[in-house]
Design a protein that fits this description.
There is one protein chain. This protein is an alpha/beta fold and 311 residues long. The protein has 2 domains: 188 residues, Spore Coat Polysaccharide Biosynthesis Protein SpsA, Chain A, CATH 3.90.550.10; 88 residues, no CATH class. The chain contains 11 helices and 11 strands. Keywords: Transferase. It holds the Pfam family DUF6457.
Amino acid sequence: MVNAPVLGAVVFAGGRGSRFGGVDKAALELGGVPLVERAVAAAEQAGVDAPIVVGPPGAAPARCTTVREQPPYSGPLAALAAALAVLPPDADEVLLLACDLVRPDEVVARLRASAPSNDEDGVLLRDPDGRAQWLAGRYRVAALRDAVAALGGDVAGRPLRRVMNALRLRPLDASAETVADIDTPEDLERARRTTRPADPANTGAYPETERAPGGAMTQSHHLPPEALDAWLVAAAAELGVEPDAVRIGTVLDVARDVAHDVARPAAPLSTFLLGVAYGRAGAADPDRLQDLADRLTERAAAWKDDRDASQ
C-alpha cells in the first residue's frame, strides 16, 4: 500500500497593499472573513495541519506558523525561500497559495484532485488566457528546495519564475472565476457582490476569527444551531430565562445580516439590543421575537443602502 504524500501549505501575504492605500490586503474581508483566513481555512480543509503564512507579524491566525521574507517586501521568491526553511520536514508536497484568491476552496479542490505524477515536480492552475498561476499550485517540496538552492541565496527582488521555470510542471486549465484574485479595490468590490457572508453558525471552511491584544488573529469555537441547544438551556437557567422563548436560528440570522450590512462588531451589539427589546415586550412569545428580528434586519439593509448611496 502506497502512503499518501504529506501535504503542507504556504499562504503568501506579504504585499505592501499599495493599491489599497497601504492597507494590509491580507486583512481585507470577503464574506465577513479576512482574505488570509479564507486561504488558510481552504488549506486546512485539505488536511494541512499547520499552514505557513508569509507576511508581517499579526497577519496570520494564531494557529499558523508565521514567517517573514528578508528583507521585508522583497517579493514572492524570497517569501518562498523563507517558508521552505520552516516547512515541516515530513512534508512531501506543498500548496502555494496567494492570500487574495477569491475562491481558495475551489483552487485547493482542483489541486487536491490532481497530484503530480512521478515525472512531474508539480501542478498549477492556468487561466483562460494561458497564464500560469504560480501561487495556485501543488509542488514537490524536494524539487522546490533544489531549485531555490541553485540560486545560491540570490532571491530578494527576483521573480518567482526563476524557480518555476526550472521545474517540470503540468498546467490545469481553470475558469477565470476559479483563479480570480484581488489586485485592486474594484476587484474587491466585484468579489463582494458575488460572495455570500459567512454564517456565524457555520462550522465549515471559514472559522470566525478575532484579534488578540497583540494584533494576531485567534480562532473562536463554532457550533451549528442544533448543537447550541445545550448551551441555550444552561445559559437560560443561569439567567432565569425560559429557553423555549428563544429561537436560536432567529438570533443567528440577525447576527449574520447585521454583520454583512453594517459591520461585524455590530452583530453582538444588535443581538443584545434584540434581547432587551424582547424582554420589554413582556410575555415570552417567539413570534414577537421574530417580528423584532425582522425589523432589525430591515433596518440593517436600509443602513447599507444609505451608506452605499452616500459613497
